[in-house]
Amino acid sequence: MKSKLPIYVGAPIVIIVVIVSVALTLFCLLRRKTPGLMKNSVKPQNETRNDGDTSLGLETRRFTYNEIERITNNLQQVLGKGGFGYVYDGFLEDGTQVAVKIRSESSNQGDKEFLAEVQILTRIHHKNLVSLIGFCKDGVHMALVYEFMSEGTLQDHIVGGDRNARCLTWRQRLKIAVESAYIGLEYLHKGCNPPLIHRDVKATNILLNTRLEAKIADFGLSKAFNRDNESQVSTNVIIGTRGYMDPEYQTTGRPTTKSDVYSFGVVLLVLVTGKPPTMHNPRSIGIIEWVQQRLSKGNIEGVVDLRMHGDHDINSIWKAADIALKCTAHASARRPNMTNVVLQLQECLKLEEDHAGGNSNNNFYTGISSNDLSMRNDSYPTNQSTNVSQSSTSFEKEHNFGRVPTMDNGPAAR
What we know:
Elements: H1 5-31, E1 37-39, E2 59-63, H2 65-71, E3 78-81, E4 85-91, E5 97-103, H3 111-121, E6 132-138, E7 141-147, H4 154-158, H5 170-191, E8 192-193, E9 196-197, E10 206-208, E11 214-216, E12 223-224, H6 247-252, H7 257-273, E13 278-280, E14 284-286, H8 287-295, H9 314-327, H10 338-356, E15 386-387
Parallel strand pairs: 2-6, 8-15
Antiparallel strand pairs: 1-2, 3-4, 4-5, 5-7, 6-7, 9-12, 10-11, 13-14
């Protein structure tokens, strides 16, 4: 028995030493990893990719400010300006063109919004959400490096002053609306876990590539919420863009997915009319009221953007305007969800494509039946959602414009 005592005592000691050694080795290896790369292990299982779209990689590069200056050729060419700061044209070492958003000293968005956007975009990857290539947090300098979107913002093509921007056809506008609603916002609301409220949906935050494919941008104000308790989301500061903000959110301080629906409804009206969300002619008037006034008289042609030269299916226009006004109902409970909006927009697109194929008639769309707005709860499968770990960031009048004139032979709303 005495001869076996050292074995009984020594064996556990050896095992403990081995375990500690292995643990220390692994710890050292992990610490030696390059600090400039943040690995993202979360990826949506239902992610779709286009061949050649290499911007959806799961590595996010960290740049120094000297690198940012080199990439932008010392901040030479300005692409645009937003609440965060100026956006500059840039090129990476391999020649890849990028857009670099640099925080300005006058920006009211601070570290919290900046880190929120980095955190979100390193965890969600979708071909219709703008891709983050890297970021810079170097002392007081903060910058975000995005994939370059050659056609700029939707605003540039609709109500912007860019004379070089091509005028979009109604079919192109509808496709942009469907992509923004379906693959962009509905994905944030239902495909992420926890879901995300964008909180700043507007025409300048919808970017277009060379194929005029839409991508949702600017997640600095986004907020995560509990899918089972969405009404409990609250903010200390009401933040958004004038003309696009949900009036219910402004009153209660509680943003919901229906806040994004409201803002998207305004975007849809901008697409239909070619007008900004707020006009001064001569008094200040919002686009919602402006459209209501004309539709109350059945004047659909007085609403449509004249730059489309009448090349559109009038039924499709009626339907899109009706969807937009339902989205912008003052009470959020009366608004459809994004799934329902997508279904209605797809019908608008089908009407327009039939028109382009010579199959359209001259009847008028007469409105959507009450059954169409039964608030469907279609959702992404719960086991195919993107995990997003995000902390809170800082941050109508009723449609009494009357019934749309009823036409005897108009297409039945489905």
